[in-house]
Amino acid sequence: MPPYKMLKIETFTLGPLQTNCYLLTEETGKRGFIVDPGMQPKRLLERIKDLTIEAIVLTHAHFDHMGGVDAVRKAAGCPVYLHDEEADWLTDARKNGSARWSDVTEPLTTDPAEYSLAEGQKLELIGHTFKVMHTPGHSPGSVSLLCDQQLISGDVLFRMGVGRTDLPGGRERDLYDSIRGKLYKLDPNVRVYPGHGAQTTIGYEMANNPYVPA
């Protein structure tokens, strides 16, 4: 049986911006890791209290994706992975955006990530291999994670949408280069788990996404 069939992905939609946090577990259900622990992570913390959490991986460091890092890292005793382009965002409320959104949150900071992410890196977690794809545009350090036929895309590619590029560090050309030059090169059957909204597939977005110019 291919490894990806034994990989379970659970979604927790967290915080006022409805951010998708993903808990990935192996077939025994005893070990897992977390992608993007967003704000107000109470449900996530309850779910992982009896699990061994190997890592927190951040697709990028905007506040709605990193808001739960401090609580989860302390509860699970696990390291955090983040691309070097955003290495100082966790400690700076201006860079992660929380200082600018006072109507949504108080300023959020946490300790720096223990490990960095880079293009082509292979993460060995919970008995699976995850390929790191550097996919900037929404933010300079945005990454996507690929494991067999499953892709966690952060805020790069959504179902019938793309990540905004009008925030500090965003760049429209980079975003489209990331999507067309990397994500759209994947198998059309690859299932996409975005940072917000419903799941989709690469093939569906190639055929239907109105925001990605040909």
From TrEMBL:
Q: Which Pfam families match?
A: Lactamase_B (PF00753)
Q: Which GO terms describe its molecular function?
A: hydrolase activity; metal ion binding
User: InterPro entries attached here?
Assistant: MBL_Glyoxalase_II (IPR051453), Metallo-B-lactamas (IPR001279), RibonucZ/Hydroxyglut_hydro (IPR036866)
Does Metal-binding count among this protein's keywords?
Answer: yes
Q: Name the chemical reaction catalysed here.
A: 3',5'-cyclic CMP + H2O = CMP + H(+); 3',5'-cyclic UMP + H2O = UMP + H(+)
Q: Which Gene3D superfamilies match?
A: Ribonuclease Z/Hydroxyacylglutathione hydrolase-like
- Keywords, comma-separated and alphabetical: Hydrolase, Metal-binding, Zinc
Domain named Metallo-beta-lactamase is located at 18-196
Cofactor(s) listed in the protein's UniProt record? Zn(2+)
Q: What is this protein called?
A: Metallo-beta-lactamase domain-containing protein
Q: Which organism is it from?
A: Paenibacillus baekrokdamisoli
Organism taxonomic ancestry:
Bacteria, Bacillati, Bacillota, Bacilli, Bacillales
